[in-house]
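#struct-help
A.M.: can someone run this one for me? Single chain, 439 residues.
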Amino acid sequence: MPFQSPRGTQDILPEEQPYWTHVHRRIEHITQLYGYERLGVPMFEDTAIFARGIGAGTDIVDKEMYSFEDRGGDSLTLRPEFTAGIVRAYIEHGMHTRPQPVRLYDTGSCFRYERPQAGRYREHHQLSLEALGEIDPAVDLEIMTMTWALYDDLGFGDLAFQINSIGCPKCRPAYIDRLVAYYREHEAAICEDCQRRLVSNPMRLLDCKSDQCQPIADAAPHTTDYLCDECREHFADLRRYLDLLQRPYTLNHRLARGLDYYTKTVFEVWAAGIGAQASVCGGGRYDVLAELLGGPPTPGVGVGIGIERIILTLKAQGIAVPQPPRPVAAVVYRGDAAKAVALRLLSDLRAAGVPVTTTYGARSFKSQMKQADKAGAAYALLIGDDEAAAGTVTLRDLVAGEQETVPLGDVVERLKRAPVEQVEEDEPKLGWLAEGRTA
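D.P.: on it. Structure tokens below:
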């Protein structure tokens, strides 16, 4: 058997690249519009960063992390998510001295050993948007509207916010006690994973996907009934701001997210057309994470956006993306003398910024012309023994079907003036911000 890519990974083939290029261009537009700066963090970190931040007992830490011991004996982990590493960098580089909130983003690969499914891979690519150093719920709103702005600019339809507040270390223990007591009454009816979570990570009980657990989870106590005054006021302000901007949302009492560092706000954006798992991204506030990593108290809020799920939704909703420019010309030659002329001409055209292609080897004119047509070239530059001897090129317009003889020295300037198909994209529309319309 020939080698194949590891299970849960994918090769991003050339025909898929226009989607990736388009998405990253829109990300650059949106992050610039909102004033977020790129921070590049390592692909692996000290294992303890994720164990402390994400939390022991979570599926990510217990089952999904790719951890290894390096030659120096240090335990390292391929990042399963960006936030912990970004907060570590914020602390390490003294970013608390900058104007707050510090607005940061990064993109790249994340790694989790989980069951591959639609839009979910063991190596997946993520956009992480983070705002650190400010407790104001208006920053939660900014992260949420920025996320929506990206999807809106990409042309997504049928979007909806799902929101909840899961409290803070002051008020959450009372809720967890009540949740555990409730589930103890139904322990015999829940799945094996939930029986384990009941001991190790009770908040994850709300997120169970097992059919047998759905009625029990639906009737579970609500986190919002146990909020302290600070958390209750924070959530009320956030909902008021969403109403002010006419952003539609659904209060989802089962939304808890899967990471221990979340506090107060948690949210997801759901979109139609991608199967049973409607969530295209998720995030929330993490006001205790910096302290868990040994830093000073630092409020923060962010979101992780899966690039694969963006592309899956683009395809599901039939949204076209710009295609890369085609070559202006293809150089077609026959014979050794013609090949020498062709190689010099290719070099001159590319140095002048003219996209051009060719084939190599002893292929016939007919075969080379087929390749030129497949490449989408607008012109073919034909060079045979006669052209090489005369210092000319036969310029054939592959659209009009006309051709003419052009002096070799004039070809570059002639093609520099030829219309070139460029990849051009509008600036982010964000009409919903200006118009105040709903999705």
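A.M.: thanks! The mean pLDDT is 90.
D.P.: also worth noting: DSSP finds 16 helices and 16 strands in the chain.
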